[in-house]
Amino acid sequence: MQLHWHRRDLRVADNRGLATAAEAGPVAPLFVFDRDVLDHAGAPRVRYLLDALAELRGAYQERGSDLLVARGDPRAVVPAVAAALDAERATWAIDYSGLARERDADVRLALDDAGVAREPVHDAIFHPPGSITTNAGDTYSVYTYFWKKWRDRDKPDPYPEPDADDLADANTLETAAEALADAEFDVAAGDLPTISDLGFEEPSASVQPAGTEAARERLSAFCSDAIYRYADDRDYPTRDATSRLSTDLKFGTIGIREVYAATAAAREGVGGERDESVEEFQSQLAWREFYAHVLREHPNVVTENYKEYENDIAWRDDADELAAWKEGKTGYPIVDAGMRQLREEAYMHNRVRMIVASFLTKDLLCDWRHGYAHFREHLADHDTANDNGGWQWASSTGTDAQPYFRIFNPMTQGERYDPDGEYITRYVPELSDVTANTIHEWHELTDLERERLAPDYPEPIVDHSERRERAISMFEAARGDD
Ligand code: FAD
User: Fold this and answer.
1) Which of 52, 233, 271, 390 is packed most tightly, with the most Cβ within 10 A?
2) Is 284 annotated as contributing to ligand binding?
3) Are 338 and 353 in contact, with CB atoms under 8 Å apart?
């Protein structure tokens, strides 16, 4: 018997750990609700997780098997379940965040004590941390060089999915769960807790449909159309030109090899701009792997600046301004639209993520850690490596090759990427009767004009030009410039 411990690989297809276990089979699949992980989760992610698990369980049931679901500390659960099943080996997909690595190191020791072999595998990304380095063997701090090596490496094909013969039957799983009835944790074949059992309320945001089937639909729709205009349109939030696969990739409801294979097929026989556009999309997949490298090599980036400055950065951290940013009431329309999209959909368009992150750190002079914590709570696709990488990039403490004086102008960004104000008015209805040109000049109007045009929408809480100067001084002081 083999035990496969599902974590962020909630699928049966293109699952390297599961396929590895199935080669020796039969496999008993397990998922563990870990309180330490749940304590860092937000309601949108728990919703997606539960829906994805329900689908995964269904996939096993269709094959005469089931999913063992436990609630407890994996350090105790995994070896005990392995013993109850008399499993020879446990497999799982490696997670690169510090918290997961500490936990997994303990689980490995516990399995050794229990005499169970274990085989953690790299599954979530093509090229694991440490495999793409500078010629001197260091992790790249600049993405462009990383990308060139990533692009030129071979990409394996998807792994086969197990069939009924490869899996433990449902009765065997139920017997193992019953044998653990007196354990200090709960385990059952199939039963999933509700969101309130896990201590969360239903999210107010509408989270996109979860699971492999929904992810495959998104992938196939994207690869038959938007992928060819991705390079031109990806920065425009109303053009629906991105894949929307981030939450699926975060929870592993679709495998990276399957995604890449679909993009490679979309590339076949097309030339010129269409070919370049597909490659542009593939280069976004490489960003995930770049940030996984960074996180694995520098686990302290979760709380510390990646880039070292001579002195501490003197963040201003004004509580009222931070609250206005979180609520989407800064008086900067594109910023407010983004922050409201986050609350409504547990998602935000990438260009707008960059704008709101720059605004928080360079206009409100607020520590990126506050923004990261807010995103972590609200994003369905929150991923430690990508979220942290994005925040540190935007706040000039990360891997951005540009210096600290890259400061987004929220008005020109709005004008360029949402010229008709369509995205803004979708999320900021107070501005729906205001023309796009006036929206993009909101900061230049008089209080009286603003009051007349949109009485319920706030005036800008800060002056961008003034704050830009302050941000530059703040970074110069941190650099130790005279
Ligand atoms: P697409 O444009 O279709 O991209 C395809 C996939 O490539 C994405 O699903 C994602 O897995 C990956 N990808 C794309 N851009 C990036 C990037 N810059 N960095 C890393 N991976 C990328 N992405 C997350 O997955 N989780 C996060 O928590 C997250 N937080 C972010 C925070 C900030 C401040 C910023 C600036 C960016 C953040 N991103 C994060 C990156 C990016 O915004 C999202 O991946 C993207 O918007 C998701 O939409 P999509 O799936 O349609 O993307």
Assistant:
1) 52
2) yes
3) yes
